[in-house]
Amino acid sequence: HFFDNVNLLYLNHAIKSQDLFLKYGDKEIKISNNVKYTNEENFLEADEVNLDLISKTSKIYMNNKNQKVKAIIKN
Fold it and tell me: Is the pLDDT of residue 75 over 80?
């Protein structure tokens, strides 16, 4: 468990949050609490992101169903 100003950097991708849980045995990462993803052209803000390292899929959502994930996607 990593906490307090967590920063992930990979090439031109950056994710910032307050919590990161690495589930090594399950090959999953849970990033939560004020998640902000940026790269050269895109921005995303959510409460939680779950990454599956095997299938390389992600689930991005807000804890409150009345709120929406904020994203700016440029092509």
Answer: no
pLDDT in tens, 44-57: 999 999 999 999 99
CB-facing half-sphere around the CA of 59: CA atoms within 13 A: 7
Q: Is the torsion defined by CA of 28, 20, 36, 71 positive or negative?
A: positive
Q: How far is Cα of residue 53 from the mean position of the Cα atoms in its chain?
A: 13
Measured in whole angstroms, the distance separating CA 38 from the mean position of its chain's CA atoms is: 10
User: Tell me, what amino acid is at 2?
Assistant: F
Measured from the Cβ of residue 16, the count of other Cβ atoms closer than 10 Å reads 16
Sign of the C-alpha dihedral, residues 63, 64, 66, 72? negative
What are the structure tokens assigned to 71, written together?
Answer: 């994203």
Tell me if 23 sits within 8 A of 29, measured CB to CB: yes
